[in-house]
């Protein structure tokens, strides 16, 4: 089991957002988080990535196997694409960046300064980091923002390839990535916290 | 960790303003003292060690806000926090880069600025030594302060208020060492105490700053 | 019944509400008694005249100023380790009292110093340390105010308190080192046990006890109001949905 979440509750701003979340994903599986804005997709993903504490429940998911990608691109405008990718390759101790650059179709951009790229290109550079980490579990928060149709298809294929290599992915997205038959769709509205349920911190004062 | 240091150095060189701003500020402070105190070189040389120390300190303060600001805003700090690099190493790298881009240039230019304030004999070496041992402390203490205010809009003023009291021991020992050296007295104690403060800061503050970053990333 | 039960905010409110009047009254009685004794029933010092009596306010306020920070340090550590909200709020509550005592200590120090040295201020190690303590308090209080989320604020200020304590101790040694040559017995750093004559000593102890009671009373009062503010916030958050 790559990701196993049991009875998880997370909060934001002193109020519980989600409660009793149960998710199980094996290697080779993908999960798609659906739900309206503000339901808690980002909070849940961040909690899994270890960036945020949880109110209650358990997460069985090894932090060393995770690669998190949030709303922001995580790329430096004053550096070239190559320099950005080499930086991440060095941090994660992984192999050459040329393979990854090809996969994400940014080989021709390698020597351009990221600041000169379009939003979609920047996004692709940011996502390329996923291929560099060599980590099994991908936690993706709205990865296809600013990507055009072709790029979305390519990204969908990249995820499929990742799953075939025994990887696992949990993706918050409204977009159809072409994974539907391989992926569990998880509607977070099911786990919406009952109205008025306060976080532990606030609850202590009542 | 080296990768992070190289990347940050690259960014600060390309963004321009990184290096030069603190040096320019240091220069301005140094020139303003004669305007404020009067042109008597004798008097100026008496206050020069302290003045140069305060100038270096304030110039360091100026570039602290930017230590985590960019990485916080563009999500890189989140990514670094989830990577295999421990946050303590991130803090150490950031402090080191701050010293290399602010503290070290200040130290190198001090002999020239010292001349403007009437410090012309070779005893100025003591001022330089005190700055070499003291500015790293300023960088790591400042990095701790920057971590506390990471992500705050307009955290600059708060950053200064938090960091300046923490700078006092370093300033006292550093300026004392410089003063005694220039007047020809024995400096051993001051320099050892200064070194002690620097080493203690580097030993405990990376952990404190890393905890603070984790809290601010929540 | 364990002491830690009172880590529950509601229980703390009840207990502190009951205790507060007693602390306040005893504080008032002790301080008034001590100061009257000290001001009116002790002889004037042969060197300093009646102005030495200002030590009855200066010394206790300085004593509380330092110990308030120490209490904040302990409370901060308890918060970080055991996550007791009352502890975090008690530290937050103690800070304004600490800074007020520091200011009183500095002002009374100046008032005492003026007739003695002819100057309103001396950079002697003790006074300078109090000035630095004032800055540490200031940073702590402003950080609490600058962070919106209460738990984050509690965490950040606790770490600041711990790091600040280390540097405050370093500053104490540094200021001693910095001002070594001028420390004579004419200076203001009168060690209560050594230089204060016996006849001044006992009333001083009484006033100091009074100030400690006052400190406890004020911290209880402030902590209660902090808890009530958080309670109100929690109730509003619940009703907002």
Write a structural description.
- The complex is a heterotrimer of chains A (206), B (218) and C (241).
- With 206 residues, chain A is of the alpha/beta class.
- In chain A, 30% of the residues lie in helices and 24% in strands.
- In chain A, a hairpin with a 2-residue loop joins strand 1 (3-12) and strand 2.
- The longest helix of chain A is centred in the last third of the chain and has 16 residues, at 149-164.
- The mean pLDDT of chain A is 86.
- The mean pLDDT of chain B is 90.
- Chain B is built from nine helices and no strands.
- With 218 residues, chain B is mainly alpha-helical.
- Chain C has one domain.
- The A-C interface holds A 13-15, 195-196, 198, 201-206 and C 8-10, 85, 149-151, 227, 230-231, 233-235, 237-239, 241.
Name the chain pair with the biggest interface and residue counts per chain.
B-C, 29 and 26 residues
Shape of chain C: globular
The CATH class designation of chain A is Alpha Beta
Decide which structural class fits the backbone of chain C.
mainly alpha
What is the fold named in CATH at topology level of chain A?
A: Rossmann fold
Query: Could you list the spans of chain A in which at least 5 consecutive residues all have pLDDT below 50?
Result: none
Main sheet summary of chain A: 5 strands, parallel
- Indicate the mean pLDDT of chain A: 86
The CATH architecture of chain A can be named as: 3-Layer(aba) Sandwich
Q: How many structural domains in the coordinates of chain A?
A: 1
Low-confidence stretches of chain C: 181-194
Q: N-to-C SSE series of chain C?
A: HHHHHHH
Counted by DSSP, the helix tally of chain A is: 6
Shape of chain A: globular
Helix content of chain A: 25-40%
Q: Could you state the CATH homologous superfamily of chain A?
A: P-loop containing nucleotide triphosphate hydrolases
């Amino acid at each position: 089991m790559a990701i196993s979440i049991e009875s998880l509750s997370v909060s934001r701003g002193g109020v519980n957002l989600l409660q009793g979340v149960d998710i199980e994903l094996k290697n080779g599986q993908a999960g798609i988080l659906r739900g309206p804005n503000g339901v808690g997709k980002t909070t849940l993903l961040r909690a899994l990535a270890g960036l945020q504490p949880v109110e209650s429940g358990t997460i069985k998911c090894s932090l060393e196997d995770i690669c998190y990608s949030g709303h922001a691109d995580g790329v430096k405008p004053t550096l070239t694409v190559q320099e950005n990718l080499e930086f991440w390759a060095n941090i994660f101790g992984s192999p050459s960046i040329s393979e990854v650059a090809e996969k994400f179709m940014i080989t021709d951009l390698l020597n351009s300064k990221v600041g000169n790229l379009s939003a979609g290109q920047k996004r692709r550079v940011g996502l390329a980091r996923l291929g560099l980490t060599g980590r099994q579990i991908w936690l993706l928060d709205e990865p296809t923002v600013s990507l055009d149709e072709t790029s979305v298809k390519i990204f969908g294929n990249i995820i499929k390839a990742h799953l075939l290599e025994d990887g696992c992915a949990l993706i918050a997205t409204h977009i159809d990535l072409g994974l539907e038959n391989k992926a569990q769709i998880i509607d977070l509205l099911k786990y919406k916290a009952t109205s008025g349920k306060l976080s532990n911190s606030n609850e202590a004062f009542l | 960790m080296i990768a992070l240091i190289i990347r940050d150095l690259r960014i600060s060189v390309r963004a321009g303003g990184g290096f030069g701003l603190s040096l320019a500020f240091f220069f301005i402070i140094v020139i303003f003292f004669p305007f404020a105190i009067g042109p008597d070189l004798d008097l100026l040389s008496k206050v020069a060690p302290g003045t140069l120390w305060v100038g270096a300190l304030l110039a360091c303060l100026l570039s602290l806000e930017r230590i985590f600001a960019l990485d916080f805003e563009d999500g890189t700090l989140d990514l670094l926090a989830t990577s295999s690099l421990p946050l303590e190493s991130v803090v150490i790298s950031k402090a080191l880069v701050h010293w290399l881009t602010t503290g070290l240039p200040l130290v190198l230019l001090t002999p020239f600025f010292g001349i403007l304030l009437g410090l012309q004999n070779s005893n100025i070496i003591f001022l330089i030594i005190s700055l070499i041992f003291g500015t790293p402390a300023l960088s790591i203490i400042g990095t701790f302060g920057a971590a506390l205010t990471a992500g705050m809009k307009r955290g600059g003023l708060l950053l200064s208020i938090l960091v300046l009291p923490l700078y006092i021991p370093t300033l006292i020992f550093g300026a004392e060492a410089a003063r005694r050296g220039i007047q020809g007295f024995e400096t051993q104690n001051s320099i050892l105490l200064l070194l002690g403060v620097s080493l203690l800061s580097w030993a405990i503050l990376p952990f404190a700053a890393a905890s603070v970053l984790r809290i601010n990333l929540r | 019944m364990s002491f830690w039960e009172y880590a529950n905010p509601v229980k703390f409110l009840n207990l502190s509400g009951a205790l507060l009047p007693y602390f306040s009254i005893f504080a008032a009685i002790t301080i008034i008694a001590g100061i009257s004794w000290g001001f009116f029933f002790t002889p004037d010092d042969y060197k300093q005249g009646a102005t030495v009596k200002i030590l009855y306010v200066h010394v206790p306020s300085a004593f509380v100023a330092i110990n308030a920070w120490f209490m904040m340090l302990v409370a901060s550590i308890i918060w970080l380790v055991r996550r007791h909200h009352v502890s975090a709020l008690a530290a937050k509550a103690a800070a304004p009292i600490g800074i007020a005592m520091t200011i009183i200590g500095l002002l009374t120090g100046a008032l005492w110093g003026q007739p003695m040295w002819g100057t309103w201020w001396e950079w002697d190690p003790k006074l300078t340390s109090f000035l630095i303590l004032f800055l540490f308090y200031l940073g702590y209080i402003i950080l609490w105010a600058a962070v919106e989320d209460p738990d984050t604020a509690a965490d950040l200020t606790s770490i600041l308190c711990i790091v600040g304590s280390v540097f405050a101790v370093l500053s104490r040694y540094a200021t001693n080192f910095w001002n070594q040559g001028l420390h004579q017995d004419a200076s203001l750093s009168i060690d209560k046990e050594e230089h204060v004559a016996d006849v001044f000593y006992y009333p001083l102890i009484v006033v100091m006890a009074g100030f400690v009671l006052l400190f406890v009373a004020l911290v209880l009062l402030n902590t209660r109001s902090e808890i009530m503010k958080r309670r109100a916030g929690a109730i509003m958050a619940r009703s907002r949905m």
